[in-house]
Every structure is written in structure tokens, then in C-alpha cells.
Design a protein that fits this description.
The structure holds 2 protein chains of 2 kinds.
Chain A: E1 2-6, H1 11-15, E2 22-31, H2 34-45, E3 58-60, H3 88-93, E4 98-101, H4 107-115, E5 119-122, H5 128-132, E6 135-142, E7 151-165, H6 172-175
Parallel strand pairs in A: 1-2, 2-3, 3-4, 4-5
Antiparallel strand pairs in A: 2-7, 5-7, 6-7
Chain B: E1 2-5, H1 6-22, H2 26-38, H3 42-61, E2 73-79, E3 82-85, H4 89-103, E4 127-133, E5 138-142, H5 147-150, E6 154-158, H6 163-178, E7 186-194, H7 196-206, H8 218-232, E8 247-257, E9 262-269, E10 276-279
Parallel strand pairs in B: 1-3, 2-4, 7-8
Antiparallel strand pairs in B: 2-5, 5-10, 6-9, 7-9
The chains are: A alpha/beta, B alpha/beta.
Chain lengths: 176, 280
């Protein structure tokens, strides 16, 4: 089913998302991949404040190619989510509601999704040119030194994704 | 001796880097089209349609097909009658990568050390495999490799007693483990034989073969066909969401090996199987 959702994402919206739904996301989302997750993890270990507010927000596992002049971003498809599995449960426990990536998740992540009434989306891997068309603005807001791996705030309009693991833990990859 | 100046090599490599990340080769485009036409899963067909649309946008608007513009892997055949002038061949190739990735708005995905992990900011160094061949030309093949699929690649040191059935099992097991992570439909490069490193190299090189072309060795060709059919019955499908197109092609290369061994390497590539060859 096609569903149009906005960020920040509420429990009510999440309760209505089922594995297999096609969603179109509008609003602000944040990018973070391997190096940014590692740094956020270290920040938390040092009892310091994270550079982004996770509450009811979505993290997109993505490191774009550089933007050509006059464009907000370059190619911008998802990276493999499982590399973030080590870090995701803690972020979910801190209020993160959604993750966009591609591929399988660990049992610990799925448990944390259920525990926190969250959701895991996949966008289409290897479709970075197409996906970039739904990104209207992009701004580095933390860890600039990480280049493609910096944390970016994206304004997206009808960004397409598929619900893979819903708040009940139903997993689309296991259903095919 | 034919003389080739390093500046010419750098210029050509730079253009190859930009071209290969925005345009897929004709054989790969054909593979996409065939997959779209044959796909029976509704969601699979939808995804294949979007992947084709992605290729069009990439070429028309010069946005890389995938943001992971890869680590630049080269196979370079150097004619033994060529004299390189003006510098060093490896430096010339790396300079071409540097210019191509910086000027072509390609992502810099290389860190200088696997543990310290500091980005080199120009996508160098490249991975370069040289062969010395007859003649007075240099043939350069570039195949930028993304790591979503590279991470799902496998190497097995099978026993001779495992035989061809062991090889089949190894290939299927690698594809099942990869599942949605490797961005299917995938292309599989398989190396059988040689030594530990030789079979991995064969597997990598097999990815640069045209999709749809088969081995000249009859049993290898049959194995390629059989494995493609078996893989496409796994119902992993486009993006791992089900369907009959899990792989576009299975390309197998073999080499002599030791009486005690049967090495098998499976190098998985996502649907963005980029490769380009130029002769100088």
C-alpha cells in the first residue's frame, strides 16, 4: 500500500505502517553511516550530547557523492544497514524512530525496533541518481571532517522507501 | 619500441573514471532490460523499472549511478614492446583516478589505513593488476567496485573430494548469505583453482566479462548456466524483495591448481556492475 508520511514521525503513524508498504517521506531526515555512528557511540560513552536530536526522527544510512554546482546533493542511495547494527539499538532506545538503509538487520536491532515502536525502511540500493531527486536541501551539521560520512540534515519530498521491518517486528525479507 | 607518455595515460584514466560511473556498458543495459521483461513478481518488476529509470537519470543529468563510486580496480595489460615515458605507470594511473574522482564529482571512498581509517580525499590508491603481454599497446580495464557487494564476497578452500558439487554449494551459499545486502540482481564472478590469491583474482576479473557471454570451456559454460538458473530460483529477487531475477550472470574462470586443493572464490557485484576498457 502507498502511504505518505511526514517527519518527525509519530507513534500513531508508525502503528499504521506494515511491512511491505511503500512510503513517501516528506520533512527533515538525517544521514549517518559507519564513521558517524562510531563517533556518536563514543560521544555517548563520554556522557556528551549528540549532535542531532534523535527524538521521533529518522536516520538515513547514506554517504552521498559530491553535489555538482547548483544542486543540493550528488548520488544518494542507501548503504548496507547491518554495519550499523552494533550502534542502532542504543539510538532507538534514545528516541530514534526510523532508519532507512538496505539489507538485513540483527535480532538485537529488531528487538529494539519492537521495544521502541520504531520502523526500518529500505530504499533501493544502487538507485542513487533517482533517489537524489527527492532530496531538496542538504546541509552538513556535524562531523564535517568525515567528508561523505559527515552527518547531513536533508529536506526530502516524497522520498520513496519500503517498510521492511514494522513496529511488530514483521520482516519483509523473511516473507518473500 | 613504441613510446607512450604518462600524461596520455592519466588523461584516459580520468575520462574512464567519470564515464564508467555514469554510464553502464551495453551488455549490462541489455541485462536490465531482459530482467524487466522476464520478471513476474510485481514488486520485483517495479524495482527493475526504477533501476532503469535511475540509469537514465544518471546519464542525462551526470549524477553517478550509485553514490558508492567504488574503489578503482584496474586490470592493465602492458605490451612488452611499450616504453613508458615521462614518469611511472602506476603513478600515472593513480593521478588519473585522483583527477577523475575530484573533477567528476565522484565519492571519495578510500581510507589510507584499514584500522586508522583516514580518508585520502581523492579515492587513491587504486588497486592495479598488471599483466605483461605481447605487442606494443596498453589495454586498461577499469571496474570500480562498491563495497556493499564486495563485503558479501567469499573464498573457500575446498578439498578435491568436494568436486563440482562442492563448488555449486559454495556459490549458492554465498548468494543466500548476501541476499538483499548485495543489491540484487547481482553479477557473480567466480574463480576456481589456482592458489588462495589467484582464485580471488580470477573471480574479480570474471566480473569484467560481458554479461551474457559464456566460458569457452564446455563444462564451465554448463556450470554457469546451471548456477544462474539455480540462483534465480532462490526468490531473493530485485532488492531482495522477491522475484526471479536474483542474478544477471554467473561468470566463471578456472586455472590449474595443486593436487591437494580446490580453491573457490565468489566475488559478488551489485547490479551496478561497472566496467570499461580502453586500448592505448
Amino acid at each position: 500500500m502507498d502511504k505518505y508520511i511526514e517527519t518527525p514521525i509519530t507513534d500513531e503513524v508508525i502503528n499504521n505502517l506494515k511491512a511491505g508498504d511503500f512510503v513517501f517521506i516528506t520533512g527533515t531526515i538525517y544521514t549517518a553511516r559507519d564513521a558517524a555512528h562510531k563517533r556518536m557511540y563514543e560521544t555517548l560513552r563520554n556522557q556528551e550530547k549528540l549532535p542531532i536530536d534523535l527524538k521521533n526522527n529518522i536516520i538515513y544510512y547514506m554517504g552521498p557523492s559530491p553535489a555538482r554546482e547548483g544542486r543540493p546533493i550528488g548520488s544518494a542511495g542507501p548503504t548496507t544497514s547491518s554495519r550499523m547494527d552494533k550502534y542502532a539499538p542504543e539510538l532507538l532506545d534514545l528516541g530514534l524512530k526510523g532508519m532507512i538503509g538496505k539489507g538485513k538487520r540483527s535480532k538485537e536491532v529488531i528487538d529494539a525496533i519492537k521495544r521502541n515502536n520504531a520502523v526500518y525502511f529500505a530504499s533501493i540500493g544502487g538507485a542513487g541518481a533517482l533517489l537524489s531527486k527527492s532530496i531538496k536541501e542538504s546541509k552538513v551539521i556535524a562531523y564535517d571532517d568525515l567528508g561523505a560520512e559527515a552527518i547531513r540534515e536533508l529536506k526530502v519530498e516524497n522520498f520513496p522507501a519500503i517498510v521492511v521491518i514494522d513496529h511488530d517486528g514483521t520482516n519483509l525479507y523473511e516473507q518473500r | 619500441m613504441r613510446e607512450i607518455n604518462v600524461d596520455k595515460i592519466t588523461e584516459i584514466v580520468k575520462e574512464m573514471c567519470i564515464n564508467v560511473n555514469h554510464f553502464l556498458s551495453e551488455d549490462m543495459r541489455e541485462a536490465y532490460k531482459n530482467a524487466y521483461d522476464s520478471e513476474t513478481s510485481e514488486i520485483g518488476k517495479k524495482i527493475l523499472g526504477q533501476l532503469q529509470e535511475n540509469l537514465e537519470i544518471a546519464g542525462e543529468e551526470m549524477i553517478p549511478i550509485c553514490q558508492d563510486t567504488g574503489m578503482a580496480v584496474f586490470f592493465v595489460n602492458v605490451g612488452q614492446e611499450v616504453h613508458i615515458t615521462g614518469g611511472n605507470l602506476t603513478d600515472a594511473i593513480n593521478e588519473g583516478v585522483r583527477q577523475g574522482y575530484v573533477e567528476g564529482y565522484l565519492r571519495k571512498s578510500v581510507v589510507s589505513d584499514p584500522i586508522i581509517r583516514k580518508n585520502t580525499n581523492d579515492n587513491t590508491p587504486a588497486i592495479i593488476h598488471y599483466d605483461i603481454v605481447e605487442g606494443d599497446k596498453i589495454e586498461i580495464t577499469l571496474a570500480p567496485k562498491g563495497f556493499g557487494s564486495e563485503n558479501m564476497s567469499k573464498i573457500y578452500m575446498l578439498k578435491p573430494a568436494d568436486g563440482i558439487e562442492g563448488v555449486k554449494e559454495a556459490i549458492l551459499s554465498a548468494v543466500k548469505d548476501a541476499g538483499p545486502n548485495a543489491c540484487p540482481p547481482m553479477v557473480l564472478g567466480v574463480g576456481i583453482g589456482g592458489t588462495f590469491e589467484k582464485c580471488a583474482l580470477l573471480a574479480k576479473k570474471a566480473l569484467t566479462r560481458k554479461a551474457g557471454e559464456h566460458s569457452q570451456t564446455e563444462y564451465v559454460k554448463e556450470l554457469e548456466i546451471e548456477m544462474l538458473e539455480k540462483i534465480n530460483r532462490l526468490n531473493i529477487g530485485p532488492a531482495g524483495l522477491g522475484g526471479k531475477n536474483t542474478a544477471f550472470a554467473v561468470n566463471i574462470e578456472t586455472y590449474a591448481t595443486h593436487i591437494a586443493g580446490l580453491p573457490v572464490a565468489i566475488n559478488i557485484c551489485c547490479h551496478v556492475n561497472r566496467h570499461i576498457t580502453k586500448e592505448i
